[in-house]
Amino acid sequence: MALIVQKFGGSSVANADRVRNVASIITDTYKAGNEVVVVVSAQGDTTDELIDKAKEISAKPPKREMDMLLASGEQISIALVAMAIREMGYPAVSLLGWQAGVLTSSDYGSARIKSVNTTRIKAELAKGNIVIVAGFQGINKYDDVTTLGRGGSDTSAVALAAALHADKCQIFTDVDGVYTADPRKVKDAIKLDEITYDEMLELATLGAQVLNNRSVEMAKKYNVELEVLSSLTRQPGTMVKEVVNMEKMLVRGVTKDVNVARISITEVPDVPGIAFKIFSKLAAKNINVDIILQSVGREGTKDIAFTVSKDNADLAIEVLKTSIAEINPDNVKLDTGIAKVSVVGAGMETHPGAAAKMFEALYERNINIQMISTSEIKISVLIDAEYADEAVAAIHAKFLPPVE
Ligand code: ADP
Ligand code: ASP
Ligand code: MG
C-alpha cells in the first residue's frame, strides 16, 4: 500500500463538475489500494475576490484579519471535495490547516511552515478515510490562522508529503505539465518530461507560476519527487526531481515576472560604505533586493539602481528617503512599468554564447535592455513591461526547440 499526496489547484475545483471530477481522480487512487491525502486550493478566483472584499472595507487591512479572511476560501473547497467523495460512496474527512497539524511562523500573509504534526492525519488514514486538507494555511504559536502567500497550496502539499514520507506527491493543475514557457502565452512551448529541482526553482522564482517557489525549495530539501499534471486529461505530467535525463537542452525555460519595481538613487556620495548602508537598512525591513547596478563614479557621486518586488516598493522608498542622511529624497525614483525576463537552464553553464543569443533576440525586436543579471543557470534582463510577452516569445524562438 502506498501513501499518495494529491494537490488540486483553484481551477481544478472551480465548480461542481470540477469538484466531482477531482473526487473521481481521488477515489480511483484510493480504490487502487492507496492511502490518499489531498490538498486543495480555494475555488477559481475566490482568493482574489476575498482580497477585493477586504479592500472595500480597508485600504490597509490588519494582516491577522486578512489571513482569517483568505483562509476561508480553502475551507469551502475541502468541505465540497469531501462531500463529493462521500456522495460517491467513499469515506472522506476534511481538515483545516490547524486540524492537520500545520504549524507555521507568525508572519501573516507569508508564513513559513515550521513543522507538521501528523497525528490527526495518520489517525484518519488508519480509520480508512481519505483526508482532505486545506492548502495555503496553518496556525502560528499564538494559535492564530496564518496563510503562506499566493500559490501556497503547493507548499502545503509538499510539506505534508515530506512529513508523511509519502511515496508520491502529485500536483494537479490546469496544464498538463511544466513547459519551456507559459503554454497559454507561447504556442510553441514544449512540455518537459523531467526537470531538476534547481531548474524548477529558478523558473518558479523568476515567474513561472505553475509551482510556487517555496514548494520546490522544500521538495529539494526533503527529496520529495513531484509530478505536475493536469486534472482534466489523465496523462503523465512532468517529474521534478534531483537528476534528470539531460535532453541536451541548453535552455529549460523562458519566463517573465512583472511583479518587479526598479528604484534608482542618483548622486549618492562616491565613498565606501554607502551601498552597505542602503542594503542593510532594506534588509532590516525584510526587503529582498534583486538586480543591482552601480554607475561609475563621477565628480564624487555615483548612481545606484536595483529592483525589489512591487509589494515592497513603497516601504523601500520610505526607508531610503527617511533613514539615510547621504541620500537626497528628491533623487530617489520608482519605476513600476518594468518586467524581468529570464532564460533558465543548467546547460548554460557550459555555453558561453547563451547571453549573446538572448540579447540578439531582443535586439531584433528593438527591445531595450535596462539591466542584466546572470548566474550559472540563468540570465535575466529588465525591460519595459509592455514588451514582456513579446520578449519571452522572441527569446523562446531563439533557443527552442533545441538544435543539435
Ligand atoms: P493552480 O491553480 O492549479 O495552482 P496556477 O494558475 O497557479 O494553477 O498555475 C498554473 C498556470 O501556470 C498555468 O495555467 C500556466 O498558464 C502558468 N504557467 C506559467 N509558466 C508556466 C510553465 N513554464 N509551464 C506550465 N505552466 C506555466
Ligand atoms: N488560494 C491561494 C491563492 O490563490 C493558494 C493557492 O491557490 O495555492 O494564492
Ligand atoms: Mg498555483
Write a structural description.
The protein has 404 residues and is α/β, with parallel strands linked by helices. The protein has a domain of 172 residues: 3-Layer(aba) Sandwich (Carbamate kinase), CATH 3.40.1160. The chain has eleven helices and 20 strands. An eight-stranded mixed sheet has the order 3-6-2-1-9-11-12-10, with helices on both faces. Strand 15 and strand 16 form a beta hairpin. Helix 10 crosses helix 11. The mean pLDDT is 95. Bound molecules: adenosine-5'-diphosphate, aspartic acid and magnesium ion. The site of magnesium ion (MG) has 4 residues, from loops.
Features:
binds adenosine-5'-diphosphate, four-stranded antiparallel beta sheet, binds magnesium ion, eight-stranded mixed beta sheet, 404 residues, 11 helices, alpha/beta, binds aspartic acid, 20 strands, globular, Carbamate kinase
Summarize the structure.
The chain is an alpha/beta fold and 404 residues long. The chain has a domain at 3-174: Carbamate kinase, CATH 3.40.1160.10.
Global outline = globular
Give the strand tally: 20
Low-confidence stretches: none
Structural class: alpha/beta
Approximately how much beta-strand content do the residues carry?
25-35%
Q: Regarding quaternary structure, how should these chains be classified?
A: single chain
Task: Say which molecules are bound, naming each kind only once.
Answer: adenosine-5'-diphosphate, aspartic acid, magnesium ion
- How much is the average pLDDT? 95
Question: What is the CATH topology classification name of the domain at 3-174?
Answer: Carbamate kinase
Provide the CATH top-level class of the domain at 3-174. Alpha Beta
